[in-house]
Amino acid sequence: MKRLVAWLLHIANRHPPYLHRTEFYELKDRILKRHGSIVAYDTQHIVNECWGYYDAGSCQGAACRKCGGSGVFQEKWVALERWHFGRYTFHRPWTVVYVKPALAASIEGRIQHGGDARDSMEAAMWLALLVDRPLFRALFFRHGRSLTPGPRPLLVLSAWIYELRSAVRAVCPRRCEQCLDMFLQKELTGGLCSVCFASRFTPPEFEDIPF
Ligand SMILES: [Zn+2]
Ligand SMILES: [Zn+2]
Fold first, then answer.
1. What is the distance in A from the centroid of ligand 2 to the CA of 190?
2. What ligand has the least distance to the C-alpha of 53?
3. What is the number of the ligand closest to the CA of 50?
4. pTM for this structure?
5. Pick from 47, 52, 75, 53: which is nearest to 61 by CA?
6. Strand 37-49 and strand 107-108: pairing?
7. For 101-143, what is each residue's pLDDT tens digit?
8. Which ligand is nearest to the CA of 52?
9. What are the tens digits of pLDDT across the range 73-101?
10. For the chain, first and last CA: distance in Å?
């Protein structure tokens, strides 16, 4: 079980779920603190290039007022704990400084993890299914659909359930909370009641089903 969790965390960690990044990192923290161990510390040096002002489109070089001509918008050093869990190495940031520290950075630039983001999502779903049900529900019932499933069972299932829900939702009438008329989704004008223009509807009963 621990080996499976380590492997899933390793794959999921390459591309953490975009919309649930905070919850994912909280889960990663809990797993590492419980099963992993700190083996070293790293310092990561990150340079964010200047992109100029929004209206300028790009950095104006020597004339750029945002970076003063340096081309650098921000430079920072991130102190990281290096953890071992199973056969894998993980990093966990614990502080950020904006002044060059005495010790040379051991990691230059962002860590490129590679791999397919869909495999990471599939792994994140399995991991959450095993150890974090609220995160699983959030990933499975809301966001799996946004990724082309491919040979990934939970992404496939998640996409099917989304399609099913949309189909059922389209044929189930909902009631306007103001004038109490019933409408199908397609009869609403810009999401508003076409009789009284209210925006609140009592949803069809199947919405209570937890998916
Ligand atoms: Zn600039
Ligand atoms: Zn109405």
1. 13
2. 1
3. 1
4. 0.77
5. 52
6. parallel
7. 888 889 999 888 888 989 999 999 999 999 999 999 989 887 6
8. 1
9. 889 999 999 999 999 999 999 999 999 98
10. 27
